[in-house]
Amino acid sequence: MAAKNAGNLEGCNVSMIVQQWQSAYDRGQLKNALYQYWAQQVPKIFFTSAEVAISTQRTPDAVQAEEKLSRDVLFEPLEWFLCGGNPSAVFQQLQALNNPPQLCGKVFKVGEPTYSCRDCCADPTCVFCIECFNKSTHKSHRYRMSTSGGGGYCDCGDVEAWKQDPWCDIHKQGLGQQSQNPVEKLPKDVAARAWEVLKIALGYAVDMLLWEQMDGLPQELEPSVHQNTYVTMLFNDEIHTYEQVISALTKAISCQQKEAVEFATVVDREGRSSVRYGNRKSCDQARSVIQVISALTKAISCQQKEAVEFATVVDREGRSSVRYGNRKSCDQARSVIQRSTSLRSKPLKVEVMHTSVCAHQAFAQKVLNWLGQVVNHSDGLRHILCSTALQQPPTGDPCVVERLMLADTALWKTARVQCHQIMMGSLLMDQESKKQFSVLYTRNYAQVQKDFMADDHDHGVSIISLSVQIFTVPTLARYLIMDHDLLAIVIRTFLEQCASCRHGRYLLDREKLQKNFRRLQFPLLDLKYVLSMVPDEWNDQLKKKFLNGFKIMVELLTSMQGMDTVTRQVGQHIEMEPEWESAFNLQIKLAPAVAMMAGWCATDKMVLIDAFRTAVKALLEIRGTPDTVKMCKRRVCDHEAIVVDYTVSREPVSIHLPICRLLAGLYLQLGRHGLTFNSPELYGPLQPPSAMDLLEKPLRTLVMIAQVHAEMWKRNGYSLFHQVYYYHNVRCRAEMQDKDIIMLQVACAQMDPNQFLIALLNKFELMNWIEGDFDDFIRLFFYGRRRDVTEKGSSATDVSAESTRDLLRFTNSLVEEFLNLLIIIMGERYVPGVGQVCSEDMVKREVIHQLCISPMAHSDLSKALPENNNYETGLEGVVHTVASFKKPGVTGMGRYELKAEFYKDYNPFFYHYTRADQSKSEEAQLKRKKQEGESTACPPPEMPALSKEFSSLVNVLECDVFVHTIRTVFRRVNSSRSRSWTEAMVHRALHLVGMALNEEKRLYQTSPYIRFNFVKKATEGGSSSLYAALHDLLGKPRIQNHADLLTWVIDRFDEVKALKEQKPGASDAQKAKKVSSKSKTDAERKKKAEAARKRREKILAQMSDMQKSFIRDNLELFEATGTDLSSSPSMEVEGSPLVVSSQHPVAVGPDRSPATHVTLTTSTCILCQEDQEVSAGNKCVVLAAYVQRSTALSKSRGKGLEDPDKYDPLLVSPDLYHGVHTSTCGHVMHADCWQRFYEAIVAKEQRRTMRFRHILSYEVDRGEFLCPLCETLSNTVIPILPPSTTIQPDTVSADISLSFSDWLDGLQKTVEASQQAVMKEEEDKMESSDDLPVLSPCPLPSITKNMAEMAAQGFQQLFEYMTETGAQAQYSDSVKEMMKLFSRATYTNMLHDPPLPTKFGLGLDPNDDDDRVPMTAWGTCAYTIRTLEWLLRDEGKPLFGSLSSRQADCITALVRVVTVSGNLSDPQTISKSALRLLSALLPQEPMKNIPCILDLDMFFTLVFLHVTIPSLYCNENTAAGGTIRGVALNDKHLLHLVTAAHLVQILLAANFSSADAPMDTEETAEGSAWVKLFMAVRKEAGVQTAVVPSGWQLQTYIRESVLPFLRCTALFFHCHTGVQSPAELQESGVSEFEPLVSTWSSPRLDHHFKWCRYPGVKESLASGPASLVKYPVEVNKLVPLPQDYSDVINRGSVFTCPRSDGDDSRAPTMCLVCGQMLCSQSYCCQTDLDGEPVGACTAHIYTCGAGVGIFLRVRECQILLLTGKTKGCFYPSPYLDDYGEHDQGLRRGNPLYLCQERYKKLQKMWLAHSIPEEVVHFMEANASFATIEWQHL
Ligand SMILES: [Zn+2]
Ligand SMILES: [Zn+2]
Ligand SMILES: [Zn+2]
Ligand SMILES: [Zn+2]
Ligand SMILES: [Zn+2]
Ligand SMILES: [Zn+2]
Ligand SMILES: [Zn+2]
């Protein structure tokens, strides 16, 4: 195809260019042609002006134009040339030549979900992308879910990554394809051009990116025309914080804060940003100013501020660590500050660059991208690119890839990332290239790591992050080890980075380790990758290279051996805590590699022998020479041993013994290859180490730790304490404590048991103790000192007495520790190699012991177990055999409980127990045994047999020194004068005897010929025998706690004795006898326990009978009070207003039932504890309350108050888009007590703010306080009033006869008259104002004069305003003041955000003039009732009886405040309000600002009219506070009217579709009546009715739609009148319609159709059904969430930051109210709120949730609750794994599924408006969270 089809572009004719290139190509001068072209074009396209060069000035148009130009001018011709035709067609052809892919290789974006199969992965870095995973078999395996940190790709199809099923269904298709060289498949000409083009393009891109000359280009790229423009380029570093960069920029280039933020964001994201564009001088200037300022601010102003910051951190962490015991000394803190500040005083990196350099670099980056795209089309092209990239130029220079590798740290962030991406997309996707690449990488490994060390960028943007892609491929790793000595390179690289070599020995550089370990550690991680797969086959080369690596590893370990030695401090506390963390960091990172190396050794005998020899050699070298190691003789009961003379309590000891531990690991492997400890081939020319050589160092460490436990090292401070903690901790113990024990076992197995024990006793410094006269020695010591003291009469008395006591105490503790260690050495056989066990047995035993402490959640269990290299603990494999799983409820976690049959395996001296674990487990077991009536003894469990090498271990348990030691302990207990024994000692001694007996029994039963004679030795010597001593213990009160164990031991003793005395065959009878006697005692115990249980049951039954008969006898009483015995007490507490009645009550109208109960009659003030009667005239009592603006009920989410000043709280829109919710904790106070309390808080706050600013959980200046009793957040109080009906009895309603139509007629006339008056006025003025029309009511007589006489009389009576007996007088001032205060609080919260500071006391509030103040209080009453109705509806609960007492108290108090408010306010205001409501409800003429009925919420309207209508006809002469008369009759007619209006509303809004048409149902009379009305109403309104519903359908619709209104109304009037609720409404599941309707006679709809004709109605209807509120109004819910959490992650990963084009969001966060995804916690999406920058979430809650929000943080899998600008908390997500646990931060990675119940709980929290309360409770309980800057989320 000819190039001419490409068409012409402005100034660039593609076909012409392509032709020129073609001819140049033919001449072999393509490179020149391309460079010439680029030299001309590139500077014309990029960095041509500030508008495209400076990130903050770039416009989307400019970006697009630049993009288009580069596409058209630069890439288009290149593609045409490359393809020799239309690129899209050719690329498609090439694509068809590809083999179907066998590898997925999808490169992960940040936050994308990844899946690893725990059953099949080769190592935990192997992952699937979501598409592959969903199409693979691993979905049904145990898998782990995670989110990618960016980089890395899908391993689908990599046979080495998966033990089985490496292909998903998609990539399986690529199988079996002939793998021919893909280049051969390409068309010849394309291939030929591709070789050239790709090489030139790649070379160009790399040359330009690495170009170092800032003001000039390579010769061949110099343009003909020179421009003189420069930019100032700011580079990223990881030292300066965002804030520092921003502040430097604002000062240096005088830009706005916002612009500076944008620069900083770009610099952070891309690694550099140009900040100034212009001539050389201005750019130079900008550079130096930025540098100076950034250095200065750090050096001067920041230092102090930072030091303060640092000091607080240290202080805070010092305090929090006290629990673990770490308090850093001041010196250290100071030095840390100094170090860190000096580090930060480096200036920012800024360069001035010529724009043409920038332009070419910009183009170079684009070229890289383009290359990535091109090779994606075709395997052949990829192969070509790889080959050129790896081809070494003839000059001998390094190839392109190597250049990039070595220049990695010189590049800026995006350039690096692009380079890595193209490497991953090309080199790593092609098997052969990957191999070559990895060779290059290995060759440059040391240099690359060194560069990284010196660099300051994160690991993720460094080339070394590619290690994982290479080293985790086992074949590749093995090849690199064999042919390129990878193992040695990696270890040596690490060693040389952190150690210096002196005299052939390496010395670790502590300072480097301490400061830079984070960057240093990566070779160790690589080592783990390299070693992760043990080779199946060895060859000589592999053996050689592995052993070479092993040698270097031993060098490294030798340099660690004996690190951080400690010497016991006596007398004085250490001055400075030594640094210990770096050695442990190193240990933790190194341990897996060491363990894996031992694993490799284990697979080949020769390798093992060689490695063993290397380790032994190292051990002998560090052992010390005979002249440095002193030996001495020690004797115990006729046995003599030569031991090392080294006193742990006086000489230095180290906890780090990696060489000994390495050797211990190798010893375990010997048995596998038929080797024993003494096999001569192990040692070759070396002298085998003596058992003492093996024993000495680990024993010192263990003794030191025993002495720490004995509190002998207290003066050595917390650092030692920490080291001991970690030594034992699950993360370290496998390669520390466990190995030391193994080494002791190894030594023991090779030694004479008596000598072994003497060596132990000697090292424990117990040689005195073991002597028979130890007590005399102590006495002598004690009295001797006393005598000294009395002679000298000095003040040293205390000291010497103290030290004697210490000596005794220390010795006793050490004996306990010694016995403990002996139990461990003898009993810990669950290590494969030591005992005859497998690794499952080992895990099982761990699990059993964890569960003996208490039942545990899966995650807690996992945490307690050590992980292997694949992060597996083996837990799942065994847990079900030993434990049963209990599912969780709505809170908490699922738990495992140990199965009963495994309790016998419990060993209280289990060596992985901490001391706390030990006592907790003992307690738990004791409790359990007591409950089950068992013996309380926890005897030593049966032990597995030892392996052959270790079999002589048991001899210790029958040797003379052992028997002597135990006997010594028992004798001292028996001697009344002895002080040298403890209960713990006896416990351990008994346990050891039990172990010996168990062992004897086991050995005798398995092989009776084995000589093991503990029983014989223990009975030797008659009355002085151990056996006799044991018997003497019986019945001793001093050992009462262990009496059961003693009994067990003696029983077992007799059993074994009998067993051995008899012939093997005859022992059965004996056994049977024993068993029967044993079971007899057991049976007795059981019988007792049974009897006790029966007794308890009997008593309970008696009590229950008594209760029942009491109820029977007093049945009437129970019925009379209406107490429902079955319901939960909290709902039915006495005083709850919503209580049952059996007769049918009427709550509205003159015929209403009498109020049966008056609640809240007296209350106790929680502040002064006095009782107070509730009445209108007395001292006012109040409820602590919290009012908050709310959008929870909004049906128009996102709609906000446009202009608070114009907001009309009276005419409420039915979408309820804005309201105020009130809640209370229900605690009652005197108004004045509360005021004093509040004033005290304010005063305290004022004092506090002067000292230091720290965010309190509540904001005093917004009127907030915590309830003094329950600390619930509150911001106002509600006065408690008696029902208004009891204060102002309705005197007239019953006597008046006024029909509904007459009443309505009168009101209509009133509205008409006032509207006409207003319109006339407006006509007179000839102008219309924007203000609300002021309707004034006309006088009552002017209405009645036009009415019939009877009606007029009734009307007159009903509305006549009585002034003589003023209600005002009945209310005390304090009540009135509190009412005002409450109204004010609702007003400020509704209209001001943040709410204005509220003033308390008598001072006038500026807002008091606003007529809307009382109305907002009425509104909150209606809003709160609406909310409660929703809550009840949502949970399917009955209307009455299911509100909590808090909720019931709240609405009762609110309703009473509201109903009284009508006649305490200015009557004229009230009257005008009434008229305005009526003019909306009964429209006569269309009026401005008066909505039609479709835009009114009828429940609000009803409440407002109830309050206002009695005052309708007052005039200027009526004073405030008149008696209201016919309230009841007004209510009755009002209810009719409003309900009728509501029905019309519902009928008009109806929108049936034919899809909802029901099945045939019988038509009812009611149904057909509704249909008739429906048609009539709609016809009147002129609405098209597409589908006519059936009668039944319509009836259902209407009933459902009107029900919420009726329910709210019922609640309102019930609280208002105190009339009981109908019984039917207290049960759920009952049809509610009839009982509700029957509380008043059914509505009459014969009223009028005027509503429908009102123009406003027609307008609203014309805009379609979507604009109307849908009936029935549904309860708002939080957005539905997907069942599987990976769907959520996926949704988060495709979400990009809305502010920057296409960038990933770092913290995608979903609003659960509206479902919107936000880019949280990031500068890019900060906005201004009241002049302060806030994060996306905080900004969102002000548009979506009135300042309250509930979010799901996708990456963290946690709920975020926010309220206001400064408060928030985290909450567990409703997603749970199979073990019933949530996973905050996705740390465990188990699959997570939505738990509906928990989501429902969140939903309820949100709807009940309790988020602010929850947040404050949380913040009060977790002070540490107060430091989180919630506003930035
Ligand atoms: Zn994939
Ligand atoms: Zn796949
Ligand atoms: Zn699998
Ligand atoms: Zn009080
Ligand atoms: Zn309270
Ligand atoms: Zn963003
Ligand atoms: Zn939202």
TrEMBL record:
Keywords: Metal-binding, Transferase, Ubl conjugation pathway, Zinc, Zinc-finger. GO terms for cellular component: cytoplasm; ubiquitin ligase complex. Pfam families: ClpS, PRT6_C, WHD_UBR1, zf-UBR. GO terms for molecular function: ubiquitin protein ligase activity; zinc ion binding. Residues 1079-1092 have a biased composition (Basic and acidic residues). SMART domains: ZnF_UBR1. Residues 102-173 form the UBR-type domain. GO terms for biological process: protein ubiquitination; ubiquitin-dependent protein catabolic process via the N-end rule pathway. InterPro entries: ClpS_core, E3_ELL-like, E3_ligase_UBR-like_C, Ribosomal_bL12_C/ClpS-like, UBR1-like, UBR1-like_WH, WH_DNA-bd_sf, Znf_UBR. Residues 921-942, 1061-1094 are annotated as: Disordered. It is an enzyme of class 2 (transferase). Its EC number is 2.3.2.27. Pathway: Protein modification; protein ubiquitination. It catalyses: S-ubiquitinyl-[E2 ubiquitin-conjugating enzyme]-L-cysteine + [acceptor protein]-L-lysine = [E2 ubiquitin-conjugating enzyme]-L-cysteine + N(6)-ubiquitinyl-[acceptor protein]-L-lysine. Signal peptide: none annotated. Ubiquitin ligase protein which is a component of the N-end rule pathway. Recognizes and binds to proteins bearing specific N-terminal residues that are destabilizing according to the N-end rule, leading to their ubiquitination and subsequent degradation. Belongs to the E3 ubiquitin-protein ligase UBR1-like family. This is E3 ubiquitin-protein ligase. It comes from Branchiostoma belcheri (Amphioxus). The lineage of its organism: Eukaryota, Metazoa, Chordata, Cephalochordata, Leptocardii. The gene is LOC109476975.
